[in-house]
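Cross-check.
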Amino acid sequence: MYLIAFAAFAATFLGGLFALRLKDRLHLILGFSAGAVIGVAFFDLIPEALELAEGVHDAGFITSIIALGFALYLILDRAIVLHMHHEDDAHPHAERGAIGAATLAIHSFLDGVAIGLAFQVSPAVGLIVTAAVLAHDFSDGINTVNMILKSGGGRVRAMKWLFLDAAAPVVGVLVGSVVIVHESELAVLLALFAGFFLYIGASELLPESHHSHPVRWTTFATVAGIATLYVVIKLAGV
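Predicted model, tokenized:
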């Protein structure tokens, strides 16, 4: 579990470093990440939630929780103005960038909690969720740096927020691994995280990957991400 926590830290931090050095070459990675996150929701989290809920919650309840997770993430996203293209380039505001970066840190914390809870289901589910979270954390690192820089912050300020964002999933993993929940409760939580992941993939990573880049190759990368997670999950026997 400590190794996974370190991997989450490293993925976020590397994403931020890439944003500082290779900003215009990340669209394919973001496209693949979008597919991976969406694939985990469809092929892993939702089936597992339905299986754990059997005999306790019906399918309609679980799908309602998925929709709730999607809506909650949407509200959080829009309320804090997460997306960087909402920033006013002509009049950057450091406070706005800091709020956005802080929200990303909260997202990263929730990612870590998802990993810890997934390992309570089974090691295979934990590893699959970890793979998707690492892809998302990489993009979180990118977005954190870009958000600070675009709001008028310098490299040092961006690195400070990047470190905070990278540490957040580590704390989340530790919290998620020590909180004991029953199978029926895990079903609800996995469904909630499925809604989170669907929003992250469809509304954050996909638009960012297609921004100012050829749609053909980013679309191919997204489909490859979905297919890769399908194959990995099937091979894992989840």
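Residues 78 and 86 are 10 Å apart (CA to CA). The mean pLDDT is 77. Passed to J.P. for a second look.
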